[in-house]
Specification:
With about 260 residues, the protein is α/β, with parallel strands linked by helices. The protein has one domain: Aldolase class I (TIM Barrel). It has 13 helices and eight strands. An eight-stranded parallel beta barrel has the order 1-2-3-4-5-6-7-8, surrounded by five helices. α3 links the parallel β3 and β4. α1 packs parallel to α2 and α1 runs parallel beside α12. The structure holds 2-phosphoglycolic acid. 2-phosphoglycolic acid (PGA) binds next to β8.
């Protein structure tokens, strides 16, 4: 079973349109020879159109950082999966801990969004992970298992095999404290086991599981060497085209070190 690795950048609420254009021009040159993995940028909605223009003809794909679960309607401030497709997205990040913490995202709304995203041909990158205080009292595995189970509720195995997960321990996000690679792999294996129990081994074997949390050019290779880690969701280090390109080229970073 071979799972194509994914390196996804999560820009969060950073970059104007002109900053995004500059980034895209630099990234397009830096990653022009990269093969064998998917590169995805998840920028603010306002920059999607410009990035689609700048990245046309490159292998870099686009993703939203969130979406709503209806196609259209009186939902002021929301963006639908259909609109993300229309803007050129193939991916959407769902259930990021910042959305759970600041915008009342719940496992229930994540599940609805997963269904809606898949119905529109978007690949959801479903974020799960524990808080520092949950890890301290050995609740990591329970927290992650419940988040995975609830995200996948009522999905058929074929549909479930289309999703990606991102294991993002909350204490490692934006803190510079990356999770030990073997420990990250252990939790990613638990995500896969949970999927196996819920939707069967076929779907679970196909699903790509990313690690996220202070991924940097010098820590990516250790993560990617783990059998259950199939990629990375990169926040801070995705804002600079050169550090993001170094992460995308993790194999060469590995060879150099
Ligand atoms: P970070 O963010 O790489 O800045 O820790 C990761 C994320 O929030 O997805």
């Amino acid at each position: 079973m071979s799972r194509k690795p994914i390196i996804a950048g999560n820009w969060k609420m950073y970059k104007t349109i002109s900053e995004a254009r500059d980034f895209a021009r630099a990234l397009a040159i830096a990653v022009r020879n990269v093969m064998g993995l998917e590169v995805v940028l998840c920028p603010p909605f306002t920059t999607l159109f410009a990035l689609r223009e700048e990245l046309a003809g490159t292998a870099v794909q686009l993703g939203g950082q969130n979406c709503y679960f209806y196609d259209e309607g009186a939902f002021t401030g929301e963006v639908s999966p259909r609109m993300l497709r229309d803007a050129g997205c193939t991916y959407v990040v769902l259930g990021h801990s910042e959305r759970r913490q600041h915008f009342a995202e719940t496992d229930g709304s994540v599940n609805k969004k997963v269904h809606a995203a898949l119905a529109h041909g978007l690949t959801p990158i479903i974020c799960v992970g524990e808080k520092a205080e949950e890890r301290e009292v050995q609740l990591t595995d329970n927290v992650v298992i419940v988040q995975v189970q609830r995200a996948l509720l009522n999905l058929e195995p074929l549909a479930a095999s289309q999703v990606c997960f991102a294991y993002e321990p909350i204490w490692a996000i934006g803190t510079g404290k990356t999770c030990d690679s073997r420990e990250a792999n252990r939790v990613c294996a638990i995500i896969r086991e949970t999927m196996t129990r819920q939707v069967g081994p076929g779907a679970a074997d196909d699903v790509r599981i990313l690690y996220g949390g202070s991924v940097k050019p010098d820590t990516i290779a250790g993560k990617m060497a783990q059998p259950h880690i199939d990629g990375a969701l990169v926040g801070g280090a995705s804002l600079d085209p050169h550090s993001f390109a170094q992460i995308v080229e993790f194999n060469s970073v590995l060879k150099k070190s």
